[in-house]
TrEMBL record:
UniProt entry keywords in alphabetical sequence: Membrane, Transmembrane, Transmembrane helix
InterPro entries xref list: Teicoplanin_resist-assoc (IPR053150), VanZ-like (IPR006976)
Keyword Thylakoid appears in the UniProt entry: no
Entry protein name: VanZ-like domain-containing protein
Pfam families in the record: VanZ
Compositional bias ranges of the Basic and acidic residues kind: 155-170
Top-level taxon of origin: Bacteria
Ribonucleoprotein is among the record's keywords: no
Stretches for region Disordered: 155-185
């Protein structure tokens, strides 16, 4: 989502956006790490859930409010990555599908890493449904925010099309040619 405007200060604005995105990304990941990887003092721990959708079904059996809270927590935990990863990447001119695939894949890998790290943390258990819901949250946040934000930033933020900076001429003149030499008889 990087550079905002071209012209005077456009490049520094792009750097500021990327830096802010990187800083927010690190802060969010530290918060997620603290939430998910701290030891819990619990009298007992449930078994790991490795059957897809079994945990979601169990949450739904608890009732609407409790299910919405538990499922919503998993969806929202990594959802900001759907916006922060492209922001930290800083690219405006990118394929929307490619950006979505890269962002969702990175979110899934981060969620998988968290689940694997939880195996060594007392009181924390692996839950495949957390991985699915975390990844879903990343995808929803990306689709809801990033394409519109990139389009707005490409227009220059004020609705007017952005005027590109003139490119420096990096050519070094015409390509040298060698006159044809006949083949020996």
């Amino acid at each position: 989502m990087g550079g905002v405007r071209q012209g005077s200060g456009g490049h520094s604005a792009a750097i500021r956006f990327r830096a802010a995105g990187g800083l927010l990304l690190v802060a969010h990941l530290l918060l997620v790490g603290w939430i998910t990887l701290r030891p819990l003092d619990v009298p007992w721990v449930s078994a790991a859930n490795v059957e897809p959708l079994a945990g979601i079904k169990a949450d739904l059996a608890l009732g609407g409010v409790q299910a919405a809270r538990r499922i919503g927590e998993s969806v929202l935990l990594l959802a900001p990555l759907g916006v922060l990863l492209p922001l930290a990447g800083g690219r405006l001119e990118v394929s929307p599908w490619g950006s979505l695939v890269r962002t969702v894949a990175a979110g899934a890998m981060l969620s998988l890493g968290i689940e694997l790290l939880q195996t060594g943390v007392p009181g924390q258990v692996v839950d495949i449904d957390s991985l699915l819901l975390n990844t879903f949250g990343v995808a929803v946040a990306h689709v809801a925010v990033v394409p519109a934000a990139r389009a707005r930033l490409r227009r220059g933020g004020d609705g007017r099309p952005r005027v590109p900076l003139p490119r420096e001429d990096t050519s070094q003149g015409p390509t040298p040619t060698i006159p044809r030499v006949g083949i020996a008889p």
